[in-house]
Design brief:
The structure is a single chain. The chain is an alpha/beta fold. Helices cover 28% and strands 34% of the residues. The chain contains eight helices and eleven strands. The strands form two sheets. A seven-stranded mixed beta sheet has the order 3-2-1-4-5-11-10, sandwiched between helices. A four-stranded antiparallel beta sheet has the order 6-7-8-9. β8 and β9 form a beta hairpin. α3 crosses α4. The longest helix has 15 residues. The chain is globular, with a radius of gyration of 18 Å. The termini are far apart.
């Protein structure tokens, strides 16, 4: 059996071209719908500055910028940022950066962390460091939006085994819950070579998020359960979307 997880899995997997192949069919319309609904909900001022934390290839950043907002996207993946940089302009910028480390303190009106781009780290102090970083880069009274999976519902919906063909590559995906992590092992062959990558996301409960936020001067002001901005229900919601405000 594989080890429970590779603590640095995200450094290799997010920089692999196969990561982008496997997830090439992600729903851009869903991402745009969420941004539309989020902007309508937050009603940011025209001059508001956004930070897209763990932005990937920038799909949320690019669409948000098309609404004339100033957006900075950061991600640890060199390959993702290289791709996103082709869309840069005077009000849209992308950088390779670790989200545990603050950038531009007291600079942003809103920080976004979307599509389960949290919970990658083995150590709790790294999760606390990430939330501390968010607080540091926010202006006073700034808003933090964290979009995570609803772990209560996820436990009942996990698919332990599936095979998915994308761009001629057959990916075998095994998923399990072990020691508080959702561990996904991804196996495939390409050009005569066998590959194995792994993803692991910590099953973080709402109560744990409350601890992270309270320790870093962030007050939760709303909980949403979907990209259509429905109220959060721990039993039925697919998502846990936390809206928090910097209090200090």
């Amino acid at each position: 059996m594989d080890n429970i997880y590779d603590v640095n899995w995200f450094k290799d997997w997010f920089n692999s071209p196969y990561y982008h192949i496997l997830y090439s069919n992600r729903d851009y319309l869903e991402a745009e719908l969420f941004i539309d609904n989020l902007v309508n909900y937050l009603k940011p001022l025209p001059e508001a500055k956004f930070l897209d934390l763990a932005c990937g290839k920038g799909r949320h950043s690019i669409y948000l910028n098309s609404k004339k907002y100033n957006v900075t996207g950061i991600d640890l993946s060199v390959q993702s940022i290289e791709y996103a940089k082709q869309f840069e302009n005077n009000s849209l910028h992308f950088f390779v950066h670790d989200m545990r480390i603050p950038c531009k303190e007291n600079h942003f009106d809103c920080v976004l962390n979307l599509f389960t781009s949290f919970g990658y780290f083995e150590k709790e102090e790294d999760n606390y460091a990430t939330i501390d970083s968010v607080c540091r880069v926010l202006k006073p009274n700034g808003i933090f939006v964290l979009d995570f999976l609803n772990v209560e519902r996820m436990q009942d919906c996990i698919i332990p085994h599936q095979v998915k063909e994308v761009q001629g590559i057959e990916f075998t995906i095994d998923k399990r819950i072990e020691k508080g992590f959702i561990v996904k092992n991804i196996y495939f062959n390409n050009k005569g070579k066998k590959y194995h990558f792994q993803e692991s996301v910590k099953m973080i409960s709402l109560d744990t998020f409350k601890k992270y936020f309270e320790a870093n001067h962030l007050e939760i002001i709303d909980l949403l359960g979907s990209y259509t901005m429905e109220d959060f229900n721990p039993l039925t919601s697919d998502r846990l979307i936390l809206i928090a405000q910097k209090t200090k």
